[in-house]
Amino acid sequence: MKVYRFQNATQFYARVKDYLLNQEALHNLLLEISHALIENPERFDEKPYLATVEANGDIVAVAMRTPPRLLLLSQIKDFKAVEILAQDLSISYQSLPGVNAPTDEAQAFTLAWHSLTGQSYQLKVALRVFQLKKVQPISQIRGYLRLATEDDQELLKNWYEAFSLEALGSIESDTERWVKRVLQQDTAYLWQDEVPVSIACHVGITPNGARIGIVYTPAEYRRKGYACACVAALSQTLLNQGNRYCFLFTDLANPTSNHIYQEIGYQPVGDWDNYSLV
Question: Is 230 a member of any domain?
């Protein structure tokens, strides 16, 4: 069993694509970032870590990191790969900010990394991956979906920061840069009811699908069905654009969002854990 590192994102993607597509919904984040590394490399300021662990010519694990972000792991076929990956990563990084991976893989890696480096760990967020093939009818909610525009810059900034603090506990990326990107790429959508009341963003693509993220409704507009309507309308928009599936992650500590998304037609496909390493 051996680690293979890749310097070229296109070559890495060619090697891991079939492995990741065997569980496209579960691996949507790795597929999405692979695509972004190839198509929009300017988004990434540092050299990525791209690796496979292989045995007898077959992939048993995929790992990637785009600093300063967390390490991402695929579903792992042979957990002996975890120790090998931890050792290889320790060559490049004295410490890691965290790991985001399917539940068993995340737990195994944090233990291996702690044993190797002494870094302590803490479960930050327990997540569930959902997939949608068809939007289910929901109650009519007043308002409509629209693309965010340059006039919404200040609102986008404030809502992105509020979402980050509420969902993640911190603002982990450059807000101004994020606002500029979503406006350039037309990926931020607002639910408008006289004034904007909710946001959902198209945050990445896979070969057959699109992921929705950064779903946020300010406290004063909650419990009115706006988030449900916004996500349902954006999901339908993405399906209409030719995507076979829509994906999203939910926080298992938020039963409201998990219930709302299943009403729309999202079905759970697996659980992920987000660990911080401190």
Answer: yes
Where helices occur in the chain by DSSP H, the ranges are 9-21, 28-39, 80-92, 103-117, 153-168, 175-185, 226-240, 255-264
Q: Are the CB atoms for 70 and 98 separated by under 8 Å?
A: yes
Give tens-digit pLDDT for 53-109.
Answer: 999 999 999 999 999 999 999 999 999 999 999 999 999 999 999 999 999 999 999
CB burial of 21-44 (b: ≥16 within 10 Å; e: otherwise) equals eeebbbbbbbbbbbbbbeeeeeee
Backbone angles phi, psi at 214, to 5 degrees: 50, 55
Give backbone dihedrals phi and psi of 181, rounded to 5 degrees, phi first.
-65, -45
Report helix, strand and coil shares of the chain as percent, to nearest 5. Answer: 40, 30, 30
Cα–Cα distance, 56 to 244 (Å, whole number):
34
CATH number at residue 93: 3.40.630
pTM for this entry? 0.92
Q: Write out pLDDT tens, residues 50-66.
A: 999 999 999 999 999 99
Amino acid identity of residue 99, one-letter, is: V
> Which amino acid does the sequence have at 154?
E
Q: Does residue 103 sit in the same domain as residue 142?
A: no
pLDDT confidence of 172, banded at 50, 70, 90?
low
- Residue 167 belongs to a domain: yes
Q: How far is C-alpha 203 from the geometric centre of its chain's CA atoms?
A: 8
Task: Taking residues 233-245, report their average pLDDT.
Answer: 98
